[in-house]
Amino acid sequence: MSIMRRFSFNHATAKFWDQREAVEACARTGSGIGLWREPVQEMGLEASAKLVKDAGVQVTSLCRAGFFTDPTQAAIDDNRKAIDEAAELGAPTLVLVSGGIPEGGTIDSAREGVKEALSVLAPYAGERGVTLSIEPLHPMFASDRCVVTTINEALDLAAPFPAGQVGVVVDTYHIWWDPQVWQGIARAGREGRIASFQFADWVTPLPAGVLTGRGQLGDGCVDFKRYLAEVDATGFTGPIEVELFNDALWARPGAEVFEETRAAFARVLE
Amino acid sequence: MSIMRRFSFNHATAKFWDQREAVEACARTGSGIGLWREPVQEMGLEASAKLVKDAGVQVTSLCRAGFFTDPTQAAIDDNRKAIDEAAELGAPTLVLVSGGIPEGGTIDSAREGVKEALSVLAPYAGERGVTLSIEPLHPMFASDRCVVTTINEALDLAAPFPAGQVGVVVDTYHIWWDPQVWQGIARAGREGRIASFQFADWVTPLPAGVLTGRGQLGDGCVDFKRYLAEVDATGFTGPIEVELFNDALWARPGAEVFEETRAAFARVLE
Q1: Ranges for the Xylose isomerase-like TIM barrel domain (chains A, B) (predicted)?
Q2: Interface test with B, best of A69, A101, A103, A107 (most B CBs within 10 A)
């Protein structure tokens, strides 16, 4: 089976590309798609669900909820809404970025907030057939974006819940530096928690703002073949999303970025 | 005892300040000093050693050697030279930043290079009464500057050697995000490996280039009181160096930065 059968294009890689065109490109190439809430809401939830269904495109994830380190009612409500959206779109998983340190808090208190939010949201997600994917982000985002920083930390947060309710994202960009990464991936597989598998490359120098420095596959130091081998060794056979936040890519036509990304994906896994 | 008795000013905090003036300021205030190889070499090793000795200033560390992920003979020779310099200056410890991923290597192979280099350098350092301090750097530097990213990883690297030969740096800037940080500090203390304790604050947004974003104490999210309590709870009673790489500080007069840094140190530990 060609590895391209597992390719999924995360819409954020061509952030400003029309959602309909992105879905059509995925349909033509047999690719999956990772959708984002904002374009989905712009088109309308029902219309978006119909679009992917009619096109026969697998939605591999919905991005993104979370931001509940201060688990206010508003934050919980928005996450419930995101779970409903994922269910309606047929997305097996909703990606959660935890959020940073709330005003007056510490990273430890923020992590307690995440536990609290998950305890409320996990059963709700489970009832709707959606697995919550806790995404550890690179530690350079720990204060302002995501206090969850390693795969083992994400697994510890997931542990109190059934694997069908809470899993983790294995995103090469965020975890490639971790001395425990191979052990963490094996553990995630053993515990049945790999709910999303994403590729992006690590390239330096980082751009100002650091958010949009994710490199095209092959441009950096991530050994994608090894990641694929380690993840597959756990028995995982799911899709692999390519999600690149990159200003230079965002400035280019989506169709071109889509083709380049498919080619890079094939090349790094050759 | 006033906490100021443990204050040490790392010369890099006022990078362009004359070494003699920095040492004199430390002498006047009873502070220690963390020296850097480049200014030491500029003044001359013997003259620098005489300067601190005559001033009665404790050299708390010499920065910086390492960069041996590709442990060539030249890299090893330079590290031996740095060890000799530390011994001559009376510095109890030499800080090691491992270096990034060598051309054609992976982070795993780079980490093997570090082990190899340490096995050659540790006995050499031990014979000269210098402890090598492995410094884990923030993972945003993992590809191009330091493949050692966590306190536990540094402790694992130190483990094969006597604690008198190889210890670790506890630098708040680099490790504050780590979910294992409190456990790691306790372990470092238990294993007698805390060879250097450094303060800098984590502030966002990071500047372009990310190297010079270390915040003045109190400007960011690091809980310095907690760090001091956790480190002291292990029985550590050594100096605390403030080391800030910060373009805005570097642009100002050294004497002013020195006073501000002492005041900030006192304030965050009040």
Answers
A1: 31-259
A2: A107
